[in-house]
Specification:
The chain has about 350 residues and is mainly alpha-helical. The chain has a single domain, classed as Growth Hormone, Chain: A (Up-down Bundle), CATH 1.20.1250. It is built from 18 helices and no strands. The longest helix has about 30 residues. About 55% of the residues are buried.
Length: about 350
């Protein structure tokens, strides 16, 4: 390898590490919305309803719908504004959703609260693109490590989100939890500042310069590699979301545990989701992506077994911790598989299609 080639790779890797650093902390700030939403969303919805509590988790459903919508809108925003300003728009939507949810709690308006959750979900859908942005801004050998670092930022979210709830839930007494949603405004604002320092490469221009054609979307998404990554990602994400959504409500309303214990359970879960990211990239490089994904799916099966064994505190916390670890291995591995299935200048349309299916499922 020539000296010029080595120097070029070093410059590319240095730029990638800078972008990954900024994206990791921006992701950590935006992902703090997840623990906030899932810790108290069901409880706040429960408090807003009358005698019929059957719709208590509807705001959380709205959040998940918002994530799917965000997967569509982020592709449009990236095409019109570029990825950097697309992320800025997503953070602004998240701040607006947090304010709307807080206003809804103060007014006692359940459906306005659900709408606020849809907006926060849209913002989270935008943020899901960050892992692909990090991978696409990195040389091929660094992609799994870049994805791992982005998700490792979730360790900050795992601590920050629940602590925001604990510190702000009584800020607007006697209305519980409104302060937690107001706190989304400074979190999103700080993420915007980090986004503005990004220097992401223009892969469309690079593709045009090399004369590479853009394959039809149908051709790409029907390849075995893309389909494998998408199915594994859907399995990991759907199982994680299903269990995480119902756990706080089941703990507090169904089993009589305190909201603080439910919040701590979500904190342990989110830590388990993201803490393994410090080693997941290295595990992928050593054992291969497919083996790491398979290990994640086995751990998710063990999580289901513990959850069905009983309703003691350790059942909830143990299942939530295994749920997080299994999701981490499955989701990072699946993302790495998908990221290797397309050329850089094909990224936007393939990623948009993938995330629409993933979060829509």
């Amino acid at each position: 390898m020539s000296t010029g080639t080595v120097e070029g790779l070093e410059r590319e890797l240095s730029a990638a590490r800078r972008n990954v650093f900024l994206l990791t902390f921006a992701q950590a700030l935006l992902a703090s919305a997840g623990p906030i939403v899932f810790s108290v969303g069901g409880l706040a919805g429960y408090n807003l309803l009358g005698q019929d509590k059957s719709l208590a988790t509807a705001p959380l459903t709205g959040f998940n719908i918002g994530v799917a919508l965000g997967a569509v809108l982020v592709a449009i925003a990236a095409r019109m504004l570029g990825r950097t300003y697309g992320f800025v728009v997503g953070a602004l939507v998240g701040a607006g959703g947090g304010l709307l949810a807080a206003i809804a709690l103060l007014r006692g308006d359940f459906w306005l609260f659900a709408l606020g959750f849809v907006l926060v979900g849209i913002s989270s859908g935008f943020a899901q693109k960050i892992r692909f942005a990090a991978a696409d801004a990195s040389p091929s050998f660094y992609k799994p490590r870049a994805i791992s670092w982005i998700l490792a930022g979730g360790v900050i979210s795992a601590v920050l989100g629940p602590q925001v709830v604990i510190l702000t839930k009584d800020l607007f007494e006697p209305v519980l939890f409104a302060g937690a949603f107001v706190a989304l405004v400074p979190l999103c604002g700080a993420a915007i500042v980090l986004f503005l320092f990004l220097r992401l490469p223009d892969h469309k221009a690079a593709g045009a310069a090399t004369g590479q054609s853009v394959r039809p979307l149908r051709e790409i998404v029907l390849t075995q590699r893309f389909l494998t990554g998408m199915v594994c990602g859907i399995s990991s994400y759907a199982l994680m979301t299903f269990m995480m959504t119902g756990a706080p409500l089941a703990m507090v309303i169904g089993c009589g545990f305190s909201p603080e214990l439910a919040t701590l359970g979500i904190q342990w879960h989110v830590l388990a989701m993201f803490a393994p990211s410090f080693v997941t990239g290295m595990l992928i490089q050593r054992f291969g992506t497919e083996k790491v994904v398979a290990a994640g799916l086995v751990i998710l099966m063990a999580c289901a077994g513990i959850a069905h064994m009983g309703i003691a505190l350790w059942n909830f916390w143990g299942a939530l911790i295994l749920l997080g670890i299994g999701w981490n291995f499955g989701f990072i591995g699946a993302t790495a598989i998908v990221a290797s299935s397309y050329r850089p200048h094909e990224a936007d349309k393939v990623q948009g299609f993938h995330d629409i299916i993933l979060f829509g499922a």
